[in-house]
Amino acid sequence: MASKQASAQGQPGQIEITQLPVAQLNELKTQLDREIAHLTQSHTSLRTAQAKFRDCLLSISSGVSSAVASKPLLVPLTSSLYVPGRLTDAEHVLVDVGTGFFVEKDVASAKDFYERKVKDLGDSLKDLESVVNEKAKNAKSVEDVIRWKVMSQGQGQEAEASES
Q: Count of CB atoms within 10 A of residue 21's CB?
């Protein structure tokens, strides 16, 4: 967004926020707050997805082995619905690759898939955190300018009153 530093460098499409009236600054602040809230919600969703992939990794590591093959286990159909089952193949698993599609993979490939997903989501989270931090800095800059303008207007009115 627009900031004092960016406009001083003459970057196209940016304006000096100190030149905006307080009403427009308030609108800009509101927009930045909405963007920060949306990005924070996205951050939470990515963290949740990353945790699910980590759970999948843990399930494969601890639950898929020839020792478990003969024992009964509970198979999740949804997050709250489990049905009894047995592991028929300790070498292959079904991997949810998104939008309800499953692919059969060997255990090593499934682990690799989930590890890559966790890493990719971690990278996306870092990028998103930097965007949120930049938006927060912009919002603080706008707040500072609003505060400065309101205080300047208040001092101007006090000076006019003392001259009268």
A: 9
Q: What angle do CA 17, 155, 26 make, to 5 degrees?
A: 30
Which amino acid belongs to residue 58? L
Given the DSSP bridges, would you call strands 92-98 and 82-86 parallel, antiparallel or unpaired? Answer: unpaired
User: What are the helix and strand counts (H, E) for the chain?
Assistant: 3, 4
**3-state SS, residue 141:** helix
pLDDT tens column, 5-58:
444 445 566 778 888 899 999 999 999 999 999 999 999 999 999 999 999 899
All structural domains of the chain with their residue ranges: 22-144
Topology (CATH) of 22-144 = Helix Hairpins (1.10.287)
Dist. CA 113–CA 93, nearest whole Å = 12
At 156, list the tokens: 């101007």
Amino acid letter, 33 = D
Q: Is 47 within 8 Å of 129 (Cβ atoms)?
A: no
Nearest to residue 130, comparing CAs of 45, 49, 47, 43? 43
Structure confidence by residue, pLDDT tens digits, 73-95 = 888 888 799 999 888 888 888 89
